[in-house]
Amino acid sequence: STANVSGLGTVVVDGNGRTVYALVSGSNKDVTCDDASGCTKAWPDLALPDGSSGATAGTGIQASMLSTMKLSDGETYPTYNGYLMYEFAGDHGPGQGNGEGISSFGGTWYALSPAGTTITSKTGS
């Protein structure tokens, strides 16, 4: 689904209404954040439930951009326009975008727009 987040505009959110982020480094959009590096403690991953074949497109999401990627841990993760999606532990509920623009774990974290692009600047609203 999508939601409006102050300072970011309309962003992609997960099933709990929390802003999702992608870790990008240059033109590489599938930088992984894994348990081994400790990354997923700060940026929880969104593995699909066992037996689930894919993510469901909610309101405002382009279903054609939703896909999945199987990682080396054997889990399958949803992607949006090729971006792996994560939550940020510093967001304490829906409507927050505290992870925006943070550089860590080999890249920079950005919220995703419904158009499938990273939101790289705050709107100031």
What does this structure look like?
The structure is a single chain. This protein is mainly β and 125 residues long. Helices cover 3% and strands 27% of the residues. It is built from 1 helix and 9 strands. The strands form 3 sheets. Strands 3, 7, 8 and 9 form a 4-stranded antiparallel sheet that branches. A hairpin with a 3-residue loop joins strand 1 and strand 2.
Strand percentage: 25-35%
For the sheet with most strands, the description reads:
4 strands, antiparallel
Q: How would you sum up the global shape?
A: globular
Helix-residue proportion: under 10%
Output mean pLDDT: 89
- Structural class comes to mainly beta
Give the strand tally. Answer: 9
Topology order in helix (H) and strand (E) letters: EEEHEEEEEE
* CA-CA gap between termini: 21 Å
CA-atom Rg in angstroms: 13 Å
Figure out the total of helices: 1
* Low-pLDDT segments, ≥5 res: none
Short description:
The protein is mainly beta and 125 residues long. It has 1 helix and 9 strands.
What are the salient characteristics of this protein?
27% strand, 125 residues, three-stranded antiparallel sheet, mainly beta, globular, single chain
